[in-house]
Amino acid sequence: MKKIIQSDAAPKAVGPYSQGVAVNGFLFLSGQIPINPVIGKLIAGGVKEQTRQVLLNIDALLKDAGLRAEHVVKATVFLTDISKFTEMNQVYAEYFCAYPPARSCVEVSKLPLGAQVEIEVVAALQK
User: Fold this and answer.
1) Does the structure show a pLDDT above 80 at 127?
2) Which residues share a beta bridge with 106?
3) 2-18 exposure pattern, b = at least 16 Cβ within 10 A, e = fewer
4) Backbone Cα Rg of the chain
5) N or C: which end of the chain has fewer CB within 10 A?
6) 26 - beta bridge partners?
């Protein structure tokens, strides 16, 4: 049976999807973009600032499920400009400093609301 994960500390979904779904021992989080959940708008700044906000949003959802960054087993990063990989990676490495998950990173032509970065993760529910 799946359980829907929702948190007021993370941005509301901008479409017909759940912030996260827990099922079969895993938590699947929908891709997070750099929306400030307090004001409900995309933050200003470059890839570093946007990556930091995305990771704050992911962290809020993980905490709501009783998890932390070290529970993340897979991440997928979407960038609108792959030449910004190093900038994104610097912030990403600060968040996933211990037990980094498996990861893919791809360049995409556009992201919702004009975001420069989106990250989705899968976490293990075992604590």
Assistant:
1) no
2) 78
3) eeebebeebbeeeeeee
4) 14
5) N
6) 23, 124
